[in-house]
Request: fold
Amino acid sequence: EYQLTPKSKVYQWQLCTEILIQGDEPGWFWITKDLDDEQPPSSDFQPDFEETIRIGKGIHAQKMQCSPEQLQRQGSRWRLFLGTEFEAKQINWSGYRLEIEPIQNVPRAPQTLRFKGEEIAFSIVNSQPLQLKVRAELHKGDRVQINGNDYAIQIVRAFDKKQLPSKNYQRAEGRYWTCNQPKLTLELCEIQDMTSKYLSTLTPDKLTGENWNIEGYEEWQATSDSIRWTLDKRINLTTNPKDERLAELTFELKITEPEKKWIQLLEDTEENDDKAETGESTLAHFFSDNVSILDANQSDPKKAYRLIKANYEEKRLLLANDKSGTTVYPKGTHLKVKADIGSLARQQRAIKKLRETPPPQLNGLIQLLNDRQVQWPRFSPVPVANWEVLTDLGYEGCDSQREFVQKALATPDFAILDGPPGTGKTTTILELIIQLVERGQRVLLCGSTHAAINNVLERIREQKLLDKIFPLRIGDENRAIGVEEFQYDNVLKQFKNNGIDSEQLLVDSANLVCGTTIGILRLFREEKVNLDRGIPPFDVLIVDECSKTPFQEFIVPAIYAKRWILVGDVRQLSPFTDRDVIVGNLRELFLPKGKGKGDYLNKNLQKACFYLQALFPYKNKFVIPESRAVIEALAQEINARIETEEKLSRFALIIQENYSDSSEDVLRYDSSLKQFEQFDLEQSAWRLYDYDYIFIEQSLYKTHRYLMPADAIVLEADWQSCAHAFRHQAHWQGQQDLKQRGNRLTNSFDIQQDRLNFLQSRDWAEELVWRLEREYWLRFLTDRRQKNRKGKKTRLEEQLQRLFPQSEPAAEGRIYRIRNIAFPSVLEALSGEGITKHRNDMPTTLNQGFELKELRCRYTTLTYQHRMHPAIAEFSRTMFYTPKTGEHRVQSLLDGHDMENKRTWSYPQYSEHRSWLNVAGKVVKNANQKEVDAIRKELEAFIRWATKNPHSETTVWEIAILTFYKKQETTLREMLKKLTGTKAYSRFPLTDKNVLIKLATVDFFQGQEADLVFLSMVNTYRDGFLDSPNRLNVAVTRARYQLVIVGDHSYFSERSDTEELNQLAKTSF
Reply:
């Protein structure tokens, strides 16, 4: 916080003038309006003085002639002399119909006086004639407005400025100022203390000084004696700032650092465009449980900051260096976070426990990994006598909720609750918890998000169930928003205040222990708490939002329970997995070969498969110098593929025989013979023109570069400056073309640089991973052909097959093992959705899912939604929740009773509750400014309405602005900061206008909802990852009253090759 205080006060010499008001003689009129234009005559008003003025109508009408002297312009008004015998309000003159009113004589008691538009204070010296003392410096010829009428003046007396001390005043903004207390008493001159008024007009741009730069300041506030503002940086001034208008005035600058030094984290969306498209924020890692936060150049974990407090939604942190709690700012402008690998160690221990010393209560977990021939037991639901929460069977969907509770009470192992958006998953969990607790059972509640856990605890409090349930919230207090009273440390303090100093007793007393699947690990690390006492300490584990929980995350808390309840929606977003983790696994892919034997997938073979995909569709002509090992691996792969891919016969593979330097000792791969044959490179170089792709050993290329076909582009760093390139440019420039992301390259040098950059910056594992991820995200996509183009899923499958090593049959199965662990949630795995089954896999429940007969007694779908207007739910119900032939699912996302009336409102802006706002914008680095501008206009209109129409059920109307891209989120954030006048990050409250605006990516907003949702589509020429059905489903099911989709309607309805996006555009009005 900065405070700027003037070292002396500011005074104003207010000069006064005595004036005599000169009235007009009677008979003058103002021309107030041209009745044909309904506005005063403009400056080009030119009547014909030869024509007479007609006053009145009919036989009583009068006429008179007017001279130019009788028409005068004063300021912006026209006045006309007609004499005293007329009382008309309208005249006709030279084709004009004019409204007139008489000019008043000098008033006896003036109320207001204005000079040059500014109201001036005055006092009456004499009333007949009217003489005034005016607090302004007036001159001969000036005019004033009294009571709204214009008058000429005569100067009676004026202040002589020679009386002012010449060294003590400055003229600024038409006034005379001084910074010294005036001691003179002068006639027609008043002295005023103007410090407060002066400061109120002072703005940063009026101050100068060395290093004076406060760009980005906020909350500039003037008080009676100083100015205060805040700035997110420290300014170091060598001299105090000055106001050049008052050079003698000096200021004192005081800088105060806040007691709590909040740090705003900012995301660098430019750092990695591919990762920026995932919708996942890298900032989320700073708010994960059990992480270390360090300065960017620090690697010593002992120098990590101590986290005092965190605001996850606003992405802000309070950090300290030690246990004193004194908050500090980072040393630089960048922070880094080191993840707690303890969670990986816990996963390893959990697997080890299941392998080596599993208690019988964990047989259900072990059976997930056993041969699928073992059948899971079937059972009947347990009847419930007294329902605590699900009491109203007339509420649509209550029967399904009760059905699941009864199944979950009866299961000896697993139960699965499939709950589409707004169908009451949390209410069902609540009933299940109270039923379990009443049966004397202990519950471990986990979730992938803190919000899911906090929501359940809030509902327990609202339902007044704390007399039966003793909840204990594991994790940092910063993430227990709204339920801090249940947080572990706070409850422990209460225990100690009551004389009980035992953490073991605290944990053992709680019949509901809850936290995120990662945050719960804190409990397992507590030295004073022992949970591993031979048998699992909890009877049931409930995992909420389980569609985002992978198996490896689930297994850690799972070994501490005897039965497992999975709750989620497989049609919403799945777990987020860092691509780098999977890339690392694939680069070191282990291929078993016999019992206890095996080897890692050869790196040269990986590169060979990478080439076969990177060069597809094999339409160019390239020479590629490579190592002998990679070329031999290419030959191995071509052998395995040549029967199905005829174009591979256009590949020439050339290596040196016995590492000789002679051109005669050369081997060329013969695809028809599937082996290398002798080849005289010097004598038969002309035959190389028959091939499109020539892979030649690097050493051989260096000595025989001149023999390479001149029509081919060489993918070598210095090719563009060699003789071969000049020969190519002379005869074959422009003969090749390359299409990349909508761009077409025809210049050979551009093509060479593009392909060289691609081959040097990517590798096999990276290319494989993003395609595996895409294949997984598109698993529910409707695959359709467009014109002569194959469907997306078909194209993706073909690309994957080119990347899979065909010469190593075991590789594909091992790759899909990694894929099936990395991407699907445990919910998808056990329900049989999202898993790619492979013939080489040993069938298990984890990679096959439950069989239908096993699912029936364990699985329930909630069918009725009570969140959104039916027009909003209709799209997702049709596209995502209507079962296809052969699926075990039932129709869901049906509309609850009277949802149309419950979600009808009076806001008149949109004719339909799901509307499309057509904006044909331009995309620049995943941002679309036109969409941002359009959303701002819509927000301004809604805010005006909401100000006069408060919400009938809550304190504010909640607006969510969602987008698929983080760069667009950043652009929207800047707009919202300006609109709301705040520096918020994701929550922009306008309480005085009955509005709260939330900004988020679609991925972040899963599990949340709002009254009005704006969805920014951004793209105008490609689908990007908007084509993921799960992500699209989340995006369009967040709104209660109104969904407004903002984007290029013509692109999504006509040119997008995704059926779901087509239908969304075509059915949104």
Summary: The two ends are 49 Å apart (CA to CA).
